[in-house]
């Protein structure tokens, strides 16, 4: 009897985990790609020297580690409203927090809550465009003939995504969850393959390389944008 009761819970947890890949963690799996591109491409790009490559990879690695392991797991996922997370769920707690928060403190909390909601709305508008555009730009790697179709394809994909948005988070997650699962398996396999061929890249795990590239670029004119790539993609 207990096995029958626990089996639906396990299935539900697995489905929820796969859906979360498509909704929550998809951006984490794609953002480092265009962050790397922004570091070495464009007007303020830094030179693709070995020291800079190791430094940028070290910045990305430790940014992901600190943001996910420390910020998300230790703090963000513990801030919830009866299991509901996010800035809007936390704002809903304010009307019932009169006995906990003083009046002066309440105004400060409301201000930061509204600021967080505004940042979330802005992020929700710009992130899909950046993510889809950076993904479609990969077609230029295969052929230069695709350069004239990058923007139209991006607009078409975004239109289709927002057209299906009314189906809700569960519907979107059920579609993109398996896609992101396949994506993570693909980049993991390709990453392990290239690490096996160039094991010296594992030296980028050294956090001292982060400090070195920040110190090295602190006096350079292009530091305003070049090494900003790894630092901007995760809010």
Helical element count? 10
* Dominant shape: globular
Helix content: 55-70%
Share in β-strands: under 5%
Overall number of strands: 0
List the uncertain runs: 1-11
Question: How would you summarize the topology of this molecule?
Answer:
Blueprint: H1 2-23, H2 26-40, H3 50-75, H4 87-91, H5 103-136, H6 139-142, H7 150-163, H8 168-197, H9 208-217, H10 229-232
Structural commentary:
- The chain has 235 residues and is an all-alpha fold.
- The chain has helices at 2-23, 26-40, 50-75, 87-91, 103-136, 139-142, 150-163, 168-197, 208-217, 229-232.
Summed up, what is this model?
By secondary structure, the protein is mostly helical. The protein has helices at residues 2-23, 26-40, 50-75, 87-91, 103-136, 139-142, 150-163, 168-197, 208-217, 229-232. Helices cover 70% and strands 0% of the residues.
């Amino acid at each position: 009897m207990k096995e029958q009761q626990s089996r639906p819970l396990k299935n539900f947890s697995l489905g929820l985990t796969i859906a979360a890949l498509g909704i929550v963690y998809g951006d984490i799996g794609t953002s480092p790609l265009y962050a790397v591109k922004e570091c070495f491409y464009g007007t303020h790009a830094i030179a693709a020297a070995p020291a800079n490559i190791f430094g940028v990879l070290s910045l990305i690695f430790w940014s992901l580690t600190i943001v996910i392991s420390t910020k998300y797991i230790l703090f963000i996922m513990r801030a919830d409203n009866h299991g509901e997370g996010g800035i809007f769920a936390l704002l809903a707690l304010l009307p019932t927090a009169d006995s906990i928060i003083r009046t002066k403190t309440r105004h400060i909390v409301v201000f930061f809550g509204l600021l967080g909601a505004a940042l979330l709305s802005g992020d929700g508008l710009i992130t899909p465009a950046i993510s889809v555009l950076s993904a479609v730009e990969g077609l230029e790697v295969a052929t230069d003939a695709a350069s004239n179709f990058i923007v139209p394809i991006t607009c078409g994909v975004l239109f289709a995504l927002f057209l299906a948005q009314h189906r809700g988070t569960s519907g979107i997650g059920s579609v993109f969850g398996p896609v992101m699962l396949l994506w993570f398996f693909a980049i993991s396999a390709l990453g392990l393959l290239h690490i096996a061929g160039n094991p010296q890249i594992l030296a980028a795990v050294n956090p001292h390389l982060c400090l070195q590239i920040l110190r090295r670029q602190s006096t350079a004119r292009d530091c305003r944008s070049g090494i900003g790539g790894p630092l901007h993609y995760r809010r």
